[in-house]
Amino acid sequence: MKTSALALVAALGLVATPAFAQTTAPQATVSAPMTAAPVPQVNIVPPASGHCGLFETCANTKIGLGKGDFLIRLSALGVLPQDTSSRVKVIGGRVKATNQVAPEFTFEYFFTDHISLDLIAASTRHELAAEDTALGKVDLGSTWVLPPTLTLAWHFRPHKRFNPYAGVGLTLAFFHNISPAGGAVQKLDLRTTVGPAANVGFDYQLVGNWFFNFDAKQMWLSVPAFINERGGAAGPYIHARDSLNPTTVAAGIEYRF
């Protein structure tokens, strides 16, 4: 009986041994240092120095106006003839011209911080009439006038945002595209005239190189006029002289180069 039991145990052992042989061996764990992936190099380009937008005030923007500055200005111009005195022969009375509004261009250069020279260019159309004459009110016609004015100005606050000025100059008035009224007025002739001028105004820096300008001028112009032909049959020959003396008022935007 004991021999049989031992034989049975031995048989069981032989059977169990293959089962242990099929057990998976434990995996060996190896600790290895991790190598970091290379970081790509990024080249950072700094912004261009000295760049300033057209409508920006930057660190390198000059404040106010001064020596060497050149400006171009576009303004709305009002021309107000004063007609302070007139002489109209034959029929008497006085000459009157209508007010007008037009665009105006101005070119200005600063010779020093305080002194600038500017030239205005504009052309306006005016209706002319002789009033309080022996014939009542007589329409004379219309004319365009081109009065380039050269002004030398003194600026009181150079290199400041607000810079008032005053100046004196000369106006040369050309009359063109003259149209007689017809009827008793078959011909109208207005002669080129030159006279003194004075102005006051101010510049104000808005942003960057942009400025706002206000300007008022007084011009003294005595204009000779001739109506009809001497000895003509269409109407009386009349010689008139009008102290046109226009006041101009302008407001606009200018840019410094």
TrEMBL record:
InterPro entries, alphabetized: OMP/PagP_B-barrel, OMPW
Taxonomy, superkingdom: Bacteria
Q: Please give an example of a GO cellular component term from this record.
A: outer membrane
Q: List this protein's GO terms for biological process.
A: transmembrane transport
Q: Could you confirm whether the keyword Transferase appears in this record?
A: no
Task: Decide whether keyword Signal is in the record.
Answer: yes
Q: Which residues form the signal peptide?
A: 1-21
Task: State the UniProt keywords alphabetically.
Answer: Signal
Family annotation (PANTHER family):
OUTER MEMBRANE PROTEIN W (PTHR36920:SF1), PTHR36920
What's the family? Belongs to the OmpW/AlkL family.
Q: What is this protein called?
A: OmpW family protein
The taxonomy runs: Bacteria, Pseudomonadati, Pseudomonadota, Alphaproteobacteria, Acetobacterales
